[in-house]
């Protein structure tokens, strides 16, 4: 009897049914996709129907189930997902070697969400997320070197080594946030700023299925709807909140239906083109003055909740391997591109070699770059310190002059 079976027998009938539905959804293979080739202005195009990619709530019409991309887009998406996958593998190894300390939450398996969503976003759109932030940090403009150097606490990290895994920032990226669910009302505030300034942009506020039951999430829903804020609330549902299945922790595990006054979309978060189309639909909805939208991205994480979690005490290794074989966002997308004859195996091998070199160079830099001087503890306390301003240390005799 495996762990899953043991859990099933312990649950009451209703909880048992919900967990079986969740397990069935996670373990099911990718829906059969109809792929065809056609000649477009830019060359061959991958296009297919994804009839099971969406579920709608309070919407008469949703995103197009016919999705497509050209060769240039396809190779770009593939490369970005591979960069994130390999970057997280590097972070995993460096953490185990004690080169990375503290908390570290990896994004492996969820790459189609950040790459697909960013493919439909405007460069001036804003985004805020939770602590599983490495993939989003890369997509919002930070280099692999900037991310890995931040993880190892080096001065060339994107936050000068001050933030670590949970606190990375970039233009229009309001960072990863360590307090569960606290970033959601902040995202509503950023969306309010867009509306106040008359900008045709949205703020994407991401949270996990474990944070979906936080009261502040529903408070943010209420204010966003009252003021018709251009905010896309995105639940990245990877199946587990820490070590608990979402079916066991949530009375209603359909997170896109969580609000009776805000429309929602369930999206197959392992299909990068479906993610992109759903995001394009949600963005157009929000920027047209209709108010917020909720999206649930059904995805999966390959590692544990954090590096301190082996990730196998509440799920089986077979479950993880089954998802890797049948629903992996990178390999399935590569197979579609090859089937559509947009690229060859050799081209993907060359991309993989290029990505490997990027990661190796960044990893070397992150291990050998210098750390911040201890005096930097006194900087960035005040936004505009006056000349010759000093800050007291931890006793009454230490004072340091600061310049920033």
TrEMBL record:
Chemical reaction(s) catalysed: N(6)-[(R)-lipoyl]-L-lysyl-[protein] + pyruvate + H(+) = N(6)-[(R)-S(8)-acetyldihydrolipoyl]-L-lysyl-[protein] + CO2
The EC code for this enzyme is 1.2.4.1
| CDD domains noted in UniProt | TPP_E1_PDC_ADC_BCADC
Could you list the residue ranges forming a coiled coil in this record? none
Provide any one GO MF term from the record: pyruvate dehydrogenase (acetyl-transferring) activity
Extract the Pfam families matched here: E1_dh
Q: Is the keyword Oxidoreductase in the record?
A: yes
What cofactor(s) does the depicted protein rely on?
thiamine diphosphate
Report keywords, A-Z: Oxidoreductase, Pyruvate, Thiamine pyrophosphate, Transit peptide
Which domain of life does the protein's organism represent? Eukaryota
**Where does the record place the Dehydrogenase E1 component domain?**
79-374
Task: Identify which top EC class this enzyme belongs to.
Answer: oxidoreductase
Q: Answer whether the UniProt record assigns the keyword Transit peptide to this protein.
A: yes
Show the InterPro entries listed in the entry.
Answer: DH_E1 (IPR001017), PDH_E1_Alpha_Subunit (IPR050642), Pyrv_DH_E1_asu_subgrp-y (IPR017597), THDP-binding (IPR029061)
Q: What GO terms describe the biological role, i.e. biological process, of this protein?
A: pyruvate decarboxylation to acetyl-CoA
* SUPFAM superfamilies, A to Z: Thiamin diphosphate-binding fold (THDP-binding) (SSF52518)
Q: What does this protein do?
A: The pyruvate dehydrogenase complex catalyzes the overall conversion of pyruvate to acetyl-CoA and CO(2).
Please state what the protein is called: Pyruvate dehydrogenase E1 component subunit alpha
């Amino acid at each position: 009897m495996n762990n899953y079976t043991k859990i099933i027998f312990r649950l009451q009938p209703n909880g048992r049914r919900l967990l079986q539905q969740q397990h069935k959804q996670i373990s099911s293979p990718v829906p059969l996709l109809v792929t065809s080739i056609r000649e477009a202005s830019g060359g061959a195009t991958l296009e297919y129907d994804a009839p099971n990619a969406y579920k709608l709530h309070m919407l008469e019409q949703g995103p197009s189930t016919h999705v497509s991309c050209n060769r240039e887009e396809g190779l770009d998406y593939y490369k970005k997902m591979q960069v994130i996958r390999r970057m997280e593998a590097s972070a995993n190894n460096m953490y185990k070697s004690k080169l990375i300390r503290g908390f570290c939450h990896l994004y492996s398996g969820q790459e189609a969400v950040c790459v697909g969503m960013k493919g439909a976003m405007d460069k001036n759109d804003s985004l805020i997320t939770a602590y599983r932030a490495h993939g989003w940090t890369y997509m919002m403009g930070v280099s692999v070197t900037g991310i890995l150097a931040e993880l190892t606490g080096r001065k060339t990290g994107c936050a000068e080594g001050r933030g670590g895994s949970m606190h990375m920032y970039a233009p229009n990226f309001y960072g990863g946030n360590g307090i569960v669910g606290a970033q959601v009302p902040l995202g509503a505030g950023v969306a309010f700023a867009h509306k106040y300034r008359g900008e045709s942009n949205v703020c994407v506020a991401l949270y996990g299925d474990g944070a979906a039951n936080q009261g502040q999430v529903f408070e943010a829903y209420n204010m966003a709807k009252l003021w018709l804020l251009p905010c896309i609330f995105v639940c990245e549902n990877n199946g587990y909140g820490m070590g608990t299945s979402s079916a066991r922790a949530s009375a209603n595990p359909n997170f896109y239906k969580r609000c009776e006054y805000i429309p929602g979309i369930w999206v197959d978060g392992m299909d990068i083109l479906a993610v992109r189309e759903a995001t394009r639909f949600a963005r157009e909805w929000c920027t047209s003055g209709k108010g917020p939208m909720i999206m649930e991205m059904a995805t999966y994480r390959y590692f544990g909740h954090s590096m301190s979690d082996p990730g196998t005490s509440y799920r089986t290794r077979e479950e993880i391997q089954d998802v890797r074989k049948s629903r992996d966002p990178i390999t399935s997308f590569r197979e579609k591109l090859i089937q559509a004859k947009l690229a060859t195996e050799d081209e993907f091998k060359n991309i993989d070699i290029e990505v490997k070199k990027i990661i190796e160079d960044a990893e070397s830099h992150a291990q050998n770059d210098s750390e911040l001087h201890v005096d930097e503890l006194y900087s960035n306390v005040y936004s505009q310190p006056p000349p010759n301003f000093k800050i007291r240390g931890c006793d009454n005799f230490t004072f340091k002059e600061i310049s920033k």
